[in-house]
Amino acid sequence: MARAAQLGGRLDAVVFAACVLVALVFSGLPEPMRDPVASALRRTIVAPLIGMQRGAERWRAAWLESERQTLQRDSAGMFRAKSKSLEMENDRLRKLLGLGSRLDWGFVPAEALHTEGRTEDVITSMTLTAGSAAGVSQYSPVVAPEGIVGLVQTVDPRMSIAILYSHPDFRVSAMSADGAAFGIVYPHLDVGPGRLSERYLLELRNVPFRSTLAIGAQIFSSGVGGAWPRGVLIGTVVDSVAETERWSRTYLVRPAVNPAHVTSVMILTSERVLQGVGNIWTVSPPGDATRPLTVRRDSVRRDSLRRDSLRLDTIPPVRF
Known about the structure:
CATH architecture of the largest domain: Beta Barrel
Order of helices and strands: HHHEEEEEEEEEEEEHH
Number of strands: 12
Oligomer: single chain
CATH superfamily of the largest domain: Rod shape-determining protein MreC, domain 2
Strand order of the largest sheet: 1-2-5-4-3-12
Number of helices: 5
Radius of gyration: 40 Å
Number of domains: 2
Shape: elongated
């Protein structure tokens, strides 16, 4: 191996010396002889080198074009991903503005900052960019356009920390949309290590045994206890849980809010909790199911009285 390297080095030195010698000889030729010699060299010795240079230039141009197209495709892909992200963000901001216009008062807007952690960890809390200086107090409800998010646990002047519905300490009194079934919503904690996604489910416990809920039934906060106002959407019933007791039922509820998608929230003030939120999340208070029928009957009665009065006005007076 060493001998071959030495031979190669000697050959390179000989070729280099020959090239230098030829260059010196040709540079000393008279002017009339230089052009024919140069032309002969271009047609013979230099021709393969020119071909190699032409191929190298073509390869370089192709490589630059390929790189340009790759960058263009990457830019288009990044633009599409960014536009999709911006579209989702704009949609969420529109929903948040719609919620603010429906609430009208008694809320504090805040950004939700997620704590960094492993992707397999369950999100149980988040930092909010609003504190006591903005009117936030401990145990203030945190909501999103879709429904319940969590509850403020600690408050600082400029920020606060809220626990989510997946936190082990979270509780909320709940009811069905028609007000026929009541219970307490707890986080669904009894799951195996390989099914952590089910930790985001909720359990509606202590529902009276006589009250049955269908799959897909919506669950709202009932307002019992004073921590939450009545009518904030919690989620949807997805299954029932077998119970050994025969005096109550338990249902699994899928939350209306996905914590991973929460970037902005509304924090309800204590005055708004006392005042209530009305039908912002489309819950009907008990008795509203008969209201359209009552209104229809009243309308029919008013129309009948109006026709009778018009009929009396058209009767000509009797003269004696």
